[in-house]
Amino acid sequence: MPEVGVSSSHCRKSSLPKSTSPSEPIHHFAMPVSARRGCHGAAKRGCRAAPVSAEMAAGSGSGPGSNGGLGSGGELHPRTGRLVSLSACGRTARRQQPGQEFNHGLVLSREPLRDGRVFTVRIDRKVNSWSGSIEIGVTALDPSVLDFPSSATGLKGGSWVVSGCSVLRDGRSVLEEYGQDLDQLGEGDHVGVERTVAGELRLWVNGRDCGVAATGLPPRVWAVVDLYGKCTQITVLPPEPGFSPPTPIPTPPLEPLASTEDSALAEQGTSADEAFMVSPAQARPETFPNSLESHNDFASMELSEVVSSTILSAYNGGLLNVNLSSPPAGEGLGSSGAATSPILTSNDALLFHEKCGTLIKLSNNNKTAERRRPLDEFNNGVVMTNRPLRDNEMFEIRIDKLVDKWSGSIEIGVTTHNPNSLEYPATMTNLQSGTIMMSGCGILTNGKGTRREYCEFSLDELQEGDHIGLTRKSNSALHFFINGIDQGVATPLTPPVVYGVVDLYGMAVKVTIVHNNNHSDRLRRNNAILRALSPEGALRRAAPAAQAEPERLLFHPNCGQKAAITHEGRTALRPHATDDFNHGVVLSSRALRDGEVFQVRIDKMVDKWAGSIEIGVTTHNPAYLQLPSTMTNLRSGTWMMTGNGVMHNGTTILDEYGHNLDRLKAGDTVGVVRREDGTLHFFVNGMTQGPAAWNVPPGVYAVVDLYGQAAQATIVDDVEVSPVPEPLPEGNNQVSPSSPSSGAGGSDLRFHQLHGSNAVITNGGRTALRHNCRSEFNDAIVISNRALRDGELFEIVIQKMVDRWSGSIEAGVTAIRPEDLEFPNTMTDIDYDTWMLSGTAIMQDGNTMRNNYGCDLDALGTGARIGMMRTAKGDLHYFINGQDQGAACSGLPPEVYAVVDLYGQCVQVSITNATGPMDNSLATSNTATEKSFPLHSPVAGVAHRFHSTCGKNVSLEEDGTRAVRAAGYAHGLVFSTKELRAEEVFEVKVEELDEKWAGSLRLGLTTLAPGEMGPGAGGSGPGLPPSLPELRTKTTWMVSSCEVRRDGQLQRMNYGRNLERLGVGSRVGVRRGADDTMHILVDGEDMGPAATGVAKNVWAVLDLYGPVRSVSIVSSTRLEESEGTQPPSPTSDTSSEGEEDDEGEERGLGGQNEVGIIPTTLEFLENHGKNILLSNGNRTATRVASYNQGIVVINQPLVPQLLVQVRIDFLNRQWTSSLVLGVITCAPERLNFPASACALKRAAWLLRGRGVFHNGLKICEKFGPNLDTCPEGTIVGLRLDSSGGLHLHVNGVDQGVAVPDVPQPCHALVDLYGQCEQVTIVNPEPGAASGKSAGTQGDMEKADMVDGIKESVCWGPPPAASPLKSCEYHALCSRFRELLLLPEDYFMPPPKRSLCYCESCRKLRGDEAHRRRGEPPREYALPFGWCRFNLRVNPRLEAGTLTKKWHMAYHGSNVAAVRRVLDRGELGAGTASILSCRPLKGEPGVGFEEPGENCAPPREEQPPPVLLSPSLQYAGAETLASKVQFRDPKSQRTHQAQVAFQVCVRPGSYTPGPPSAALGEPPDPHFSPAELEWVTKEKGATLLYALLVRVE
Fold first, then answer.
1. How confident is the model at residue 901 (pLDDT cuts 50, 70, 90)?
2. 618, 1336, 1427, 1580: least buried by Cβ within 10 Å?
3. How far apart are CA 197 and CA 1511, in angstroms?
4. For 644-696, what is each residue's pLDDT tens digit?
5. Cβ-contact 1289, 1276 below 8 angstroms
6. Are 455 and 480 spatial neighbours (Cβ–Cβ below 8 Å)?
7. How far apart are CA 1039 and CA 1004, in angstroms?
8. pTM to 2 decimal places
9. Residue 283: its pLDDT value, please?
10. Other beta carbons within 10 Å of 803
11. How many other C-beta atoms lie within 10 A of the C-beta of residue 379?
12. Residue 1370 parent element (H or E)
């Protein structure tokens, strides 16, 4: 039982089957199996197939007998792979441990093969645990001296192997789609290889010759068989008397044919005549089907496909004698044009041209195009039509397959280039002549954007089953169509002769041409019907139909492709519900009247798919609508309830609404009604779920989508439903308890109808969202509909975010009325009467007035709540998840409006029910300011003391709690009396200043024990220095002004608030975090981590230096707070004020940071996977069926420093893989859980095996122990540390930080997957308590720490150890890189993504200016002053070896060239390389002529040279790396930026020389001028390593 991967489908719902029986076919979308072809090697090794049920694990039995095969002695060589055992006199080979190992199963023949004799083996046994199966071939390597690799594809030195349906030579694919797929062979099947006298390799399957697999074999070869994957045992068959191989099909020699069109066929050893011959497996049918239902063989085929296949079979079988005219020249015949068989397809049918992109595979008579290796490659998928388009001819395609890996998707358009002469580019937008493409929602002409917003649809958002078309009108206008809807004129002038072109880019993998004679497209044969698809057209047609509409509601006969209408229009069903999960849309036969309830009963369900029935309304008339695969794909005039959410035009407008439809059973009813006021209500089992949408137009049709589990539904008449609540009169604040979305705690607060240009207000003014969220990041400001009252809370919840932009939501208040506000790009652009919280900064009128406020909006995730309140005193308070963060600012005018900026990552928010007046003291007073800080505030009766050892000018007073510098400005060192424990704060208050001195107070932590310095107060011990920077006898971390130093050496600048600005009464403190960081606190505000890797045994140290003359301690040694200083608690009782809680110490928390609220009992939520049974007071979870659907969630959110653990009670060894642990930040109570946790694509962090995954993508590997190998009784747990890092604990041992900065609140999740069938919650433990865990952590810190980074925990540093987290220059460079809109998949995932080389960061790391790399070593300079963004390296390249053996250099570039270089993957790739020394097309130059519009580039042209340099000072000069101006979206300031590439260069491929660019002075004196510039002309000599950015 294997690991579960992410589904390759891009459907909005997961449709993985829960179980599979032998009678149920396995579909590619339901159970993906890792394909090995195209990624031979380690990419597939170790991947396992999707799990199958136990019923399929048994073998299928032996097949029929064999004809036998003639081998060379018929025995196997005794030397084999390390897991192979031989028996039956060396004729039978078996791979041992088939359930644990999938390779090391190589066997070879004892003797070399004889020419013309077939070496045949029988497959005796297969298992279903793996993907891939038997591989067979020949090798010239002698088995007696062979060092056996793990698999046959690892054989080199003259080896030919057939794997699946590919032929590999020395591990590299030389022929795709050859013969029969060996992976599909079963037990009892025979497979053999033959070397012919002509040196050809032939494959035999069950006595049938599959043709020539390879040529040029050496005379002496051995047969090789790999018992790989599913194949575990084979037997060599003895030769049978009188057997001779059948006469092979004559095959022409493997020579290039004359025509360009037949070149692809020549590579496969097939002539043009044979290209259209039907194989024996495709024999013509005995009878032509009378209907599609009468023959199962044709059930899944369209009628046109059946007719085409039958006619084609009859034609090739000689039954038809058809004399077709030859197509015009250049449209399908070779240059010879002679003895080739006429192609059956005439010029009337639009097909894909046989010449296409390098990764394209054509099928279905050239109507279907598919991009190979879609998970490895995202481009080289261009296909064109076989002939030019005629005027008014529709060229339309259907999206068949998408993958959810890349950004970007399908692009479609026209080009004047003839496909016969075109050299296909990697992407069609790279073609800079004669090409018009629709990309996203814009139009590109010759690769340049001419219309940014062409239509409301974006091609990047289309789903599988959607249609895209185009037509060139007779007036030369080009129109695009999406799902039959005309998007208008894209360009008015289109050349008369154009070919249709499709670019299968990014997510798009497979498309099919849709012809008008297709039965599913008959309703779209003329423009009148197409125009009827718009909502306006539907309404126009609905009006006259209302006169004759029937009284009774029925289903319309036009329904989805997989649906059927029975029982006189009363019942709708999916007849083959177990074969497909969509295409089940049905609509009502007439429009609904106002107040008329349309209700259906679920009659039948199938327990196979995820998801279930969906119901709603649409303005589209069913008579003219081309029904989509699912109704939520329709992007106009549609409202649907799906799951427990509501979608409008494919966009979610309500996430948490009503009963979850996915949990309904057979017999339940669902309904919908539109009221006269335009509100839409849904019903579940007769109970109204409240208003779901407003302003729904009249004349809508009811629609039901029989999706997923829902297989049959019947319209129900005269069923009682609960009355829909009447709308409240204007101004009435009462709410109906039955409507979850109508009430806001009695508040009439809504979003105002006026808003930013990119904002959309839905849900009756309660929800705001930013549309085009992946292409627009601002212009989405929304404002409340009225001013806030004193003490009134305006609270919103973040419902949707995108991981694309930097920055996130901004919130605040403004005194500007919405009618007077001219909405800017961002609200921080307003320079009057506005107060905003942006990140951690409080801004007034666009200027920062306070940093490091108590919360960070940029760190909030989905589900977080943000509130704003103006108190009666005019203070502004923010609330995060109900917790008051304290006064942000004061002096607000009486009338202010709440304002929210849906900026950057934040896409959608809704007003919560907590909005409204609050019954607390904030309405009348400002007593909670000190409560706002979650850190420890001063308490009465301090217990901290200064140590008696101090500077010679210091006198200690008031029992050691006050220190005074009596003279001078130095010698003012003081220490704490005891070591600081984890999370303990040592805080002092400034009491007296001496303004005649400059400088500042200094404080920090030191490993120097003050008792070692000598006795006595008032006198310094031996060696005590005059100031803290000179204290270097032991390691000391300190902050002076705004600088961080370690042992006097500068580590960081611009940290926190400047200590020189402290005044009398200011409080300043130091804290050692549990994560080994040092934090400085100023007036109770944490300035963030100042240093990392701080030792365990440290003392607080202060230097009364300069103006600070005296301080007094205001902190306590005990980590306790009075009730008045603790943050508000949901469980606190107002009557207990003044009482102290000592439970923390009783629980063993004495020396750690406070735990907050420790749940008295933990249990699993009632909302869980379908196969889970809870017991033992919901503390034990058992999976009762299958291997998945076993997700459970802990009922309480994770509390920092609280260890939540579960014990593995029972394992089922039938499966492999095991439990998955993790956290989710979305509300789990109403979450619709998928089949496995790996399918969670939002706000999920998971630990699986030894990997760490975020939203289905692996972000870290080889972390901690393998969870799949944990035995029964193992206790595993999760813990959040004080900085939000997620720790994994196994049997009480902390395995380190798995995920940094996890958003809170979050819930622990356990997936009882595979072997793991039962777990039980173990009593919670404080994660920082002393004991085994703490001791182990301490050992790790001493043994494995190098400058604060745990090398053995994860390959990335913890966030606090990286200066990038607070480096403003790095953040600025990152924002510029994001403005380039480059796909994220080009770059390495965090934390390996970027590295800043600004002065502060490089000094903090101690980087040297130059390094040596390569063989032989060569020096290069580090990119000081730049920011580096590491690129992913092609997985087929040995990247680790290249970066060590190749030299390192830099190449100056420009912004316009970056995307094209990344698409190509190397510098100077081809004649059009933008980075070559050759001038660009738009630049004046000599010796470069633009080719004609339709001219092919010369084939033998030498690639232009590429300039490189080991010094970025030279490569980054403005003459080589041009500057571009941009506006920082955060600060709105204008900067200049440059880009360059860091590349690996193959030694010996370049020529060093003097600089060719004219520079005023030597750019880098470290390098000799004679070797400053490297020039290379060799293709493939460079490997892109990183993108570099510099901003000024």
1. very high
2. 1580
3. 59
4. 888 888 888 887 788 889 888 888 999 999 998 888 999 998 888 888 888 88
5. yes
6. yes
7. 6
8. 0.28
9. 37
10. 9
11. 23
12. helix 1368-1379
Hey, which bits of 75-189 come out as E strands?
Answer: 84-87, 92-95, 106-108, 118-126, 135-139, 159-163, 166-169, 172-175
Token digits for 253? 């020699």
Residue 1025: CB atoms within 10 A of its CB come to 17
8 A C-beta contact, residue 415 and residue 384:
yes
pLDDT at 1304: 83
Confidence band for 1225, pLDDT divided at 50, 70 and 90: confident
Cβ pair 159, 91 in contact under 8 A: no
Amino acid at 373: R
User: What CA–CA distance (Å, rounded) separates 1311 from 1234?
Assistant: 11
DSSP E strand stretches across 1134-1285: 1172-1175, 1180-1183, 1191-1197, 1202-1211, 1220-1224, 1244-1248, 1251-1254, 1257-1260, 1275-1280
pLDDT tens track for 4-56: 333 333 333 333 333 333 334 434 333 333 333 333 333 333 333 333 333 33
What pLDDT digit, counting tens, does each position of 556-609 carry? 999 998 899 998 899 999 988 888 888 999 999 999 999 999 999 999 999 888
Burial of 228: CB neighbours in 10 Å, binned 0-12, 13-18, 19+: buried
Contact between 1247 and 1298 (Cβ < 8 Å)? yes
Lowest mean pLDDT among 143-157, 403-417, 646-660: 646-660
- Please report the pLDDT score of residue 510 as a whole number: 93
Contacts of 1142 (CB under 8 A, 6+ apart): 1120
Given the structure tokens 């020096």, which residue do they identify?
Answer: 1419
Q: What is the pLDDT of residues 505-526, one digit of tens each?
A: 999 999 999 875 443 343 333 3
Measured in whole angstroms, the distance separating CA 309 from the mean position of its chain's CA atoms is: 41
Q: Measuring CA to CA, how many Å separate 728 from each of 293, 677, 737, 742, 765? A: 54, 12, 13, 10, 15
Q: How many residues does the chain have?
A: 1592
818: DSSP letter: G
- Is-contact 700 619, C-beta < 8 A? yes
**Cα–Cα distance between 626 and 48 in angstroms, integer?**
39
Under 8 Å between Cβ of 34 and 48: yes
Which one-letter DSSP state was computed for residue 746? T
Q: Is 1528 exposed, middle or buried (0-12, 13-18, 19+ CB in 10 A)?
A: middle
Contact assessment for residue 408 and residue 378, using Cβ atoms and an 8 Å cutoff: yes
Q: DSSP code of 1076?
A: S
Indicate the DSSP class of residue 579. T
The pLDDT tens digits for 770-811 are: 877 777 888 999 999 999 988 899 999 998 888 778 889 999
- Could you give the C-alpha distances from 21 to 15, 300, 574, 823, in angstroms and in order? 16, 20, 20, 59
| Matching residue, tokens 């007439």 | 590
Question: Does pLDDT of 1434 surpass 90?
Answer: no
Alpha-carbon distances, residue 1392 vs 1357, 1362, 1380, 1510 (angstroms): 9, 11, 20, 23
Closest CA to 476 of 493, 490, 498: 493
The H or E element that residue 1341 is part of is helix 1332-1344
Contact 1525, 1569 (CB under 8 A): no
First to last CA, the chain: 55
According to the model, what pLDDT value does residue 587 have? 95
**Residue 1587: what pLDDT?**
92
Burial class (CB in 10 A: 0-12, 13-18, 19+), 1349: middle
Helix (H, G, I), strand (E, B) or coil at 54: helix
| pLDDT value at 1322 more than 50 | yes
